[in-house]
Each structure stands twice: as C-alpha cells, then as structure tokens.
Amino acid sequence: MKFEALMQSGDWKGEKHIPVIESPDEVASGEAFVITVSVGKEIPHPNTTEHHIRWIKLFFKGEDEKFPFEIGSYEFTAHGEHVGGPNTGPAYSEPCVTAKVKLNKSGTLLAMSYCNIHGLWESSKEIKVK
C-alpha cells in the first residue's frame, strides 16, 4: 500500500477535514510573506478529546524540482483531556498555523493534515514568484 491510497482530498467549503492554504497568489522573489493553513475553515472541526486534528504539515515544491521541501510540521496536543474525564480540560487546540517564508521560485504549496478518526487529508495551491 502507498500513502497516495490513504490520502483524502476535496473541497474545503463542503468538507471539514481539508487543510485550507491561504497565501498570496503571487509574491516577490526573496521577500517574506505569510502562509496560513487551517482545518475547518468553512465547516468547523470538533477538536474534542475524541475527535480532533492531530497535526498539519506544510511543504513547498518548486517548479522543476523533484522533491518538496518541508516548511513546517505543527502538532496540536491540547484537546480537552483532563483527569476529570474527556472534554473537561482547560485547553483545546484549534488547527490553524501561520508560517512566514521567502521563495525564489514559483511552485506549489502542499498541506497535509491528520484527523485521529478520519485519517489523512491533503490540499495544494500554486504560487507564482516574480
């Protein structure tokens, strides 16, 4: 079995597990800009002890590059767990991350997320460097 067989995708406006990549469509070469990746943008994900997004990973694959480069790996570890029982804790993570990056080549931003119940999800966004 390969990872591609396990990866799920779709339209984030109708599916709460899709990582949504928000960034400019075009950036200047070598100038820092912000990328935000979130899960549950249109339809909120529950993020409870029993059902939550465990992590988000963000990659960049430049045009004509064979392999992607990992921009960041973000783990969410507070899901309402507590000695008093599930969903009684004082902290709940929301699956949203922001990265500030510089690119010197056009390519594709790729995001992957993991739901503890519904598995692996992916999305991508083209970005132009001028």
Can you give a write-up of this model?
- It is a single chain.
- With 130 residues, the protein is mainly beta.
- It has one domain (3-129): SOR catalytic domain (Immunoglobulin-like), CATH 2.60.40.730.
- It is built from 1 helix and 8 strands, in the order αββββββββ.
- The strands form 2 sheets. The protein has a 5-stranded mixed beta sheet, with no helix packed on it. A 3-stranded antiparallel beta sheet has the order 1-3-6, with no helix packed on it.
- The model has no long low-confidence stretch (mean pLDDT 94).
- InterPro entries: Desulfoferrodoxin_Fe-bd_dom, Desulfoferrodoxin_Fe-bd_dom_sf, Desulfoferrodoxin_SOR.
- Keywords: Electron transport, Iron, Metal-binding, Transport.
Can you tell me the CATH superfamily?
SOR catalytic domain
Helix content: under 10%
Task: Look up the CATH topology.
Answer: Immunoglobulin-like
Helix and strand succession?
HEEEEEEEE
* CA-based gyration radius: 16 Å
- Under the CATH scheme, the architecture is Sandwich
- The figure for the number of domains is 1
For the secondary structure, the number of strands is 8
Q: Count up the helices.
A: 1
Task: Calculate the terminal CA-CA distance, rounded to whole Å.
Answer: 39 Å
Residue fraction in strands: 35-45%
Largest sheet: 5 strands, mixed
CATH class: Mainly Beta
Low-confidence stretches: none
Strand order of the largest sheet: 2-8-7-4-5
> Overall 3D geometry?
elongated
Mean pLDDT, as a whole number? 94
Helix-and-strand structural type: mainly beta
Keywords: Electron transport, Iron, Metal-binding, Transport
Domain Desulfoferrodoxin ferrous iron-binding: 10-123
Organism: Acetomicrobium mobile (strain ATCC BAA-54 / DSM 13181 / JCM 12221 / NGA)
GO molecular function: iron ion binding; oxidoreductase activity
